[in-house]
Design brief:
single chain, 289 residues, alpha+beta, 3-stranded antiparallel β-sheet, elongated
C-alpha cells in the first residue's frame, strides 16, 4: 500500500516541476492527484479531503525561498502532514505480556495476511518467537491458505462429511501427537483411531503435491488428503476443519472419536491428540528457535 502511495504521490509532484512559484491553480491540480492516491490507498474520504485542504492552506501561505523549488516545498509539506496524520511520533508495539497476543481483523483483501507476515519478520529481528494462527469459521481459511502456499496445486475443499478422519501412517514426525507428547506418554492414541467428521465443510491438502511439501500428516481426510498436519520448518499447523476440537455429539459419535466434555478433561483418544497439538504450539512459541 505504501509503495503504491509513494509512486502516486511522486507522479503528483511532477505537476509542479518547472513551475516558478506555487499558485492556487497548480496546487489544486497537484492535490487532486494526491487525494486520488490517498483514496486508492483506502484512506477515508473525509480524512483525505481534510488532509489535502490542510496541505493547500499551508502551501499557499508559504513564501518559496530562492533555493527551494515549489515541488520540493510541496513534498516537505505533504511529508510533514502525513507524519502528523500517522500520529506524529513513533509508538512501539506493546508485547510485554507473556505470551503477547495480537489480533488481526478486517475485510477480505484488506491486507491482514501480508501485514501479519511483515509484522512477524519485524518481531523476529527483535529476538521474539512468533506464531501466526488463523481461524475462519466459514471457509477453513481458503484465502489464507492460497496466500501461504503461494498458489501451489493440491488443495481441495469438501462440502460433505463423507467419513471420519483416520490417523496418518505412523512416522517419526507425527509420533509427538500420538505417542510421545505430554498427553500420550502413558497411554498412546490407539492405532485404529479416527476422529469423527461431522462438519459440513472441510479442506484437505492432497499428498504428493507441491502444496503438501514439508507438511507432516497427523489426520487424513475422506478425500485422501491431509486434514491435520504440521509444517515444522515454517511452524505452521494446517487445521482443515474448524470443528475438530468441538465437543458436539450426534450420529456416529463414540466415547473416543470426539472430545466428550466441556470441562477440559483429557480422557480419550480425541482429546489427547488435540491436546498434544496445542502442547506443540505452546512449546514452539515459548521455547522454539
Amino acid at each position: 500500500m505504501f509503495d503504491n502511495l509513494s509512486e502516486r504521490l511522486e507522479r503528483s509532484f511532477k505537476i509542479l516541476k518547472g513551475e516558478g512559484k506555487i499558485t492556487e491553480i497548480n496546487v489544486a491540480e497537484t492535490l487532486k492527484d494526491v487525494r486520488k492516491a490517498l483514496l486508492d490507498a483506502d484512506v477515508n474520504y473525509k480524512v483525505a479531503k481534510s488532509f489535502t485542504d490542510t496541505v493547500k492552506e499551508k502551501a499557499l501561505g508559504q513564501n518559496v525561498l530562492t533555493a527551494v523549488k515549489p515541488s520540493q516545498l510541496m513534498v516537505k509539506i505533504v511529508h510533514d502532514e502525513l507524519t502528523q496524520l500517522m500520529g506524529g511520533e513513533t509508538a512501539e508495539i506493546n508485547i510485554d505480556s507473556k505470551p503477547a497476543v495480537i489480533l488481526m481483523s478486517g475485510l477480505q483483501g484488506s491486507g491482514k495476511t501480508t501485514f501479519s507476515g511483515k509484522l512477524a519478520r519485524m518481531l523476529k529481528t527483535k529476538k521474539n518467537r512468533v506464531l501466526i494462527a488463523s481461524y475462519d469459521a466459514s471457509d477453513v481459511s481458503q484465502n489464507l491458505l492460497a496466500e501461504i502456499l503461494a498458489g501451489k496445486s493440491g488443495i481441495k475443499y469438501f462440502t460433505s462429511n463423507g467419513g471420519p478422519y483416520p490417523l496418518a501412517a505412523s512416522t517419526i514426525g507425527n509420533h509427538y501427537f500420538t505417542t510421545d507428547g505430554p498427553f500420550t506418554k502413558n497411554a498412546p492414541v490407539t492405532s485404529n483411531f479416527a476422529l469423527r467428521n461431522y462438519d459440513i465443510y472441510h479442506g484437505e491438502i492432497q499428498v504428493n503435491t507441491s502444496a503438501s511439501e514439508g507438511i507432516t500428516p497427523i489426520l487424513m481426510g475422506p478425500g485422501g488428503g491431509i486434514v491435520l498436519g504440521i509444517d515444522y520448518s515454517r511452524r505452521i499447523v494446517y487445521w482443515g476443519d474448524t470443528d475438530m476440537s468441538s465437543n458436539l455429539s450426534g450420529t456416529g459419535a463414540t466415547s473416543e472419536n470426539h472430545i466428550n466434555n466441556t470441562a477440559g478433561t483429557i480422557n480419550n483418544d480425541a482429546s489427547k491428540l488435540i491436546a498434544n497439538v496445542f502442547a506443540w504450539i505452546t512449546e514452539t512459541v515459548l521455547y522454539g528457535e
